[in-house]
Please model this.
Amino acid sequence: MSAPPAEFLITGQAALANPSPPPLLTQADSRDKWRKKMDFLLSVIGFAVDLGNVWRFPYICYQNGGGAFLIPYILMAVFGGVPLFYMELALGQFHRVGAIPIWKHICPIFKGIGFAICIIGLYVSFYYNTIIAWALYYFYSSFTHTLPWTSCDNPWNTPNCTSYFGKSNVTWTNHSKSPAEEFYVRKVLELQNSQGLSNVGGIRWQLLLCLFLIFTIVYFSLWKGVKTSGKVVWVTATLPYAVLLILLIRGATLPGAWRGIVFYLRPNWEKLTSTVWVDAAAQIFFSLGPGFGVLLALSSYNPFHNNCYRDAIITSVVNCLTSFLSGFVIFTVLGYMAEMRDVEVEDVARDKGPSLLFITYPEAIANMVGSTFFAIIFFLMMITLGLDSTFGGLEAMITAIMDEYPHLLAKQRELFVLGLITTCFLGSVATLTSGGSYIVKLLEEFGAGCSILAVVFLESIAVSWFYGIQQFCNDVKAMLGFAPGIYWQVCWAAVSPAFLAFIIASSLLDQPPLTLFDYQYPDWSILVGYLIGASSFICIPVYMVYKLVWTPGSLKQRLAVCLRPERRAQEQPMEPGLTPPAP
Model:
């Protein structure tokens, strides 16, 4: 009998479990790697912990029963969010490629998922960086002895402007507008110069300059790959925690802070309805961020035997705890505002999304001792939180496209990144107009809404049911030395897909009218939004048809070829003296 081939010796038991084609050498050996393990962890944490942790979690929590909301939130994290998070880290680390070419190793007919992810990432870049530009504008405006949103004596203020802090004879009515709200709406956005989406007005050159500076920082952080971005995240991923701690201590010392904390955490068991479970599932999914291709891209630069299981647990726990901590930071200040207005906390906690960060919190900061200092560090925190997520989102697109076309782009990374950044900048110009916030809201709602949920649903189905749970577990065992337990297998095969289907169905069935401030979005804009959402998802069926048409043979033979991995990723030999990490 002749000696077994070398490939068989490398794959070991994994090859016995699934007689798929032997692994082929890939570009993995020459692939960039993280300079330090901490660079990777901070990059993943920085991507997962974004502006949504600060504005969305506290709002969703108090809206859905306060402390009672933590029950569905934790259950959805344990059985839905964290398993998907772990799956993507493991897939990226094993196959060592981005979101587009990875499907050659898993299930080629689903390759359209990779293209859909890139289009969604592009839409997100069109509006997300504009929000960071708003924060940069506030950051610049904070370098003054008296913050410009403190009083009603500015040229942009209206007769409805009401400053009540420190004034006992001022009555707050339904028509009252705080100085912070008018600064945001009439000075930063200049919404008064727009008639809605039908006439968005001219470009705000101050915001254009802010956005240009943001993209310049992003370019020089990404142009050389993970070796440069890994250094930058040591600042951008750690600074927010120092600022959150400072703001928490300051907030806890404010009058009425206890009212906000009680309102935040008091359980309201009557609100534990089906809607709460939908909100909990959506919150944990969008917070951890599987499906955007970022986890695939970042983990693809890891050593083959890196313990991605431990990484998934650490980073997801840090993300959830950060959301919980942010709630205290926000609600101590909301309690303070309620105390100053002499109203209930519920009456000042109505704002969500950017309004919470650009109106409610700055209003409270403006009336604190040391307001300038707290405003500067608060908006610096917002900028760094946003930059981390932008790094991850753009790196996902860069890695996916460069790995798909290495013969064209392998030695042209700097030029390719410049071209991508320029495209994102030009695509964002419409959001810098006087009515740009209307476009931001539309893109936020439809650019990465149900489409990204559907993408991750199909991704989990493709990996669990077509590639196969057993094969995937063999891949994980080849990297870590131990196979995932029955809990992970059940979550990947059944619970996580059901979790995603649940969110998708609920999102489609519950479509409230889209509004921003007093503006009601017209019907035609909602249709445009649906087209934006469909434009990314349509890549998946289009590629399926393309793959089936161009594959030779009968329909049965074509399906067999399109569903079978074209080639396996190389299972890297272990470095001398090293053993796979223990569970």
